[in-house]
Design a protein that fits this description.
Layout lengths: L9 E6 L3 H10 L5 E6 L2 H11 L3 E5 L6 H10 L8 E6 L3 H10 L3 E5 L3 H32 L4 E5 L5 E4 L1 H7 L10 H8 L1 E3 L1 H4 L9 E5 L8 E12 L2 E10 L1 H38 L5 H30 L9 E3 L3 H12 L3 E5 L8 E5 H17 L7 E7 L5 E7 L7 H6 L3 H4 L15 H10 L3 E6 L6 E8 L1 H5 L12
Parallel strand pairs: 1-2, 1-3, 3-4, 4-5, 13-15
Antiparallel strand pairs: 6-7, 6-11, 8-9, 9-10, 10-11, 12-14, 15-16, 16-18, 17-18
Length: 496
C-alpha cells in the first residue's frame, strides 16, 4: 500500500496495527502531497522510522503497539527527536491525550478519522516543521559563516554588497552600515587587484585574482585570493565571493623560493672554481710543474674560501629568513655591473641596456637582491626558451608616470599561446613542485617576478612581441620615495 513518491511529496510513517484503518487512511490521503508508509508493530515502526527519516509520524494509541513506550523511544532517538509525532486517539478520552503528551506527542487526531481534518493537520505540522528546520539550518550556517576564517560576501547583480561575514568585514575594513556598498570600490580602497587585466573585467567575468597590499616601511605585504561563484535563479541573482588570506603562505613560499635562488646563485661559481682546479691537479699531476700545481691549488683554495663564506651567509639567511627584505633599495646606476655579472653567469652575449642618464640616480623600492633576482629570472627564462639558448635581449629603462620607473625586457625567443599567458600567473594558487618558480610543463618563472613587484606596490605585464617571436615583460616599479608615502587607512570604508 505504498504510493509512488513525487518531488513535492512528504513521507508520513503510520504505525498502525488495524489493517482496515490503514486502508481507510490510504484512501483518504491518496493523490495528495503525502506518501504513506505503514508499520504494523512497534518494533517495525521504530526500525522503519530510522530508515525513512519521515517528515511526520502517525502513531495509533493501541495497547498492542505499546504506544506510549513507543512514543518515548521515538523521542529518545537522536535522529528522530525532532520529527513531528501525532497520535490517533479515541474521541473524548482525555486520559489518552494526557498520557500521549507526557510521552512526547506533538498533536492528536481523533478516531474515527475525518479526511479534511487529517489532511489539514498534516499540512500544518509538516509546513511548520520544514520552516523550523530551515531556520535551524540557516542559524547554524550563519554562525559558521560569521566565524569562518575566510571572508564571504553576497553581491547583487550590480556588484553591491548584500552580506559580509565578520572576516570579510575585517579584510575589507567595512563599516557596520555596509549593505549597498559597491564591492569594486571597497576592494580598490584597501588593495591593488592583480593581474590588472583580470580585475578590469571582473564584474562581467569573475576569475580568481590576487588582492595585494604593498609592503610599507612598517608593514609587510598582505595577500588575499579573490574567488567567486554565481547563483542565477531567475530574478534572484546573487554572486558569492570568497576572500582567502594567504599572506603566511606567500611569505613562506617566497622565503623558500629565494633560498633556492640564493643557493643556486651563490654556490655555483665558487664550487666550479674549486672543482675545476682540483680536477686539473688530479688528472695532470704528473705533467705539471711544482709551480703550476701550487697555482691550481691556490685557485682551489680560493674557491673553497669563497664557498665557505657563501655557506656562512646562507646559514645566516636560514636563521634570519627576512634578510633579503632588509637590504638597501637599489639605485639604477648599478644596473650595468649587475647585468654584466648575470650575463657572465648565464653565458649571455647579446643583452643590451638602455638607461637614460637622468634616471641613473633614481632609487627604486626593490632591494638590490630583489632587483638582481628579478633580472636573473627573466634573463634565465629568455635563454631557456630561445631555440638556440642564445637570445638577443633588449632592456630599456624609462619613466612615464611620476613616482614610478618602467623596465621593459624583450627577447627574441618564442611566443606563448593565450593559455600559457593566462596560466603563467597561477603557480601560487595551485602550488608547484620543488619551488622552482616554473609553471609545470612550461617552465616560466614569471610568478616569482610578479609577486616581488606586487609586494613593492608595482605592476607587471606579460605579452608576446608584436613584431616577431619572443616575449615582452613590462615592469612598473615605484621609487623609494613613492613607497614611503604609502599609508594603509585604518578607517572603515563608509557610504558617501
Amino acid at each position: 500500500m505504498t504510493q509512488k513518491l513525487t518531488a513535492t511529496q512528504s513521507t508520513i510513517l503510520v504505525i498502525l496495527a488495524n489493517l482496515s484503518l490503514q486502508e481507510e487512511m490510504d484512501e483518504l490521503l491518496r493523490n495528495t502531497t503525502f506518501r504513506l508508509e505503514f508499520a504494523n508493530t512497534a518494533q517495525e515502526g521504530l526500525r522503519r522510522a530510522e530508515e525513512l527519516l519521515p517528515d511526520a509520524i502517525l502513531l495509533d494509541s493501541d495497547p498492542a503497539l505499546e504506544s506510549y513506550e513507543t512514543c518515548r523511544r521515538l523521542r529518545a532517538s537522536r535522529i528522530l527527536s525532532n520529527v513531528p509525532l501525532l497520535m490517533l486517539h479515541s474521541r473524548h478520552n482525555r486520559d489518552e491525550r494526557a498520557a500521549g503528551l507526557s510521552a512526547g506527542a506533538d498533536d492528536f487526531i481523533e478516531k474515527p478519522l475525518d479526511g479534511l481534518e487529517l489532511l489539514s493537520r498534516l499540512r500544518t505540522i509538516t509546513r511548520l516543521n520544514a520552516q523550523r528546520l530551515l531556520l535551524s539550518h540557516l542559524s547554524r550556517f550563519t554562525w559558521m559563516a560569521d566565524h569562518a576564517q575566510e571572508g564571504y560576501l553576497l553581491l547583487d547583480r550590480a556588484g553591491s554588497i548584500l552580506y559580509a561575514n565578520e572576516r570579510a568585514i575585517e579584510l575589507l575594513n567595512l563599516d557596520e552600515d555596509y549593505v549597498g556598498l559597491p564591492f569594486i570600490t571597497a576592494v580598490e580602497r584597501a588593495y591593488l587587484p592583480e593581474p590588472e587585466s583580470v580585475w578590469q573585467h571582473w564584474l562581467d567575468e569573475p576569475e580568481p585574482c590576487f588582492l595585494v597590499q604593498p609592503e610599507t616601511p612598517t608593514a609587510r605585504a598582505a595577500w588575499v585570493i579573490l574567488e567567486a561563484h554565481e547563483l542565477d535563479l531567475g530574478n534572484d541573482y546573487q554572486r558569492i565571493v570568497r576572500l582567502r588570506d594567504v599572506t603566511e603562505r606567500m611569505t613562506i613560499y617566497q622565503d623558500m623560493r629565494r633560498f633556492h635562488t640564493v643557493v643556486a646563485h651563490k654556490l655555483r661559481t665558487p664550487m666550479s672554481m674549486m672543482v675545476s682546479n682540483l680536477g686539473i691537479i688530479k688528472n695532470k699531476m704528473d705533467m705539471l710543474s711544482a709551480e703550476e700545481i701550487r697555482e691550481y691549488a691556490r685557485g682551489a683554495i680560493g674557491g673553497a674560501d669563497r664557498l665557505a663564506n657563501e655557506i656562512r651567509k646562507i646559514l645566516t639567511y636560514i636563521d634570519a629568513p627576512l634578510a633579503l627584505n632588509l637590504g638597501q633599495p637599489a639605485r639604477l646606476d648599478i644596473l650595468p655591473d649587475m647585468l654584466a655579472e648575470i650575463c657572465r653567469l648565464l653565458d649571455l652575449k647579446q643583452v643590451m641596456l638602455s638607461l637614460p642618464e637622468p634616471l641613473k640616480e633614481q632609487t627604486i623600492a626593490l632591494t638590490t637582491d630583489a632587483l638582481e633576482m628579478t633580472l636573473h629570472e627573466l634573463l634565465e627564462n629568455a635563454r631557456k626558451f630561445h631555440p638556440e639558448h642564445a637570445p638577443t635581449v633588449d632592456i630599456s629603462i624609462g619613466q612615464t608616470t611620476p613616482g614610478f620607473i618602467n623596465i621593459r625586457v624583450a627577447d627574441d625567443g618564442m611566443n606563448l599561446t593565450p593559455e600559457q599567458l593566462r596560466w603563467a600567473w597561477l603557480p601560487y594558487v595551485q602550488g608547484e613542485k620543488d619551488f622552482t618558480g616554473e609553471l609545470p610543463g612550461m617552465g616560466l618563472g614569471f610568478p616569482m617576478v610578479a609577486t616581488l613587484l606586487w609586494k613593492a606596490g608595482g605592476d607587471l605585464r606579460l605579452r608576446n612581441r608584436p613584431d616577431g617571436p619572443g616575449i615582452v615583460v613590462e615592469m612598473k616599479i615605484p621609487l623609494e620615495g613613492t613607497i614611503r608615502q604609502v599609508e594603509r587607512s585604518a578607517a572603515p570604508y563608509r557610504k558617501e
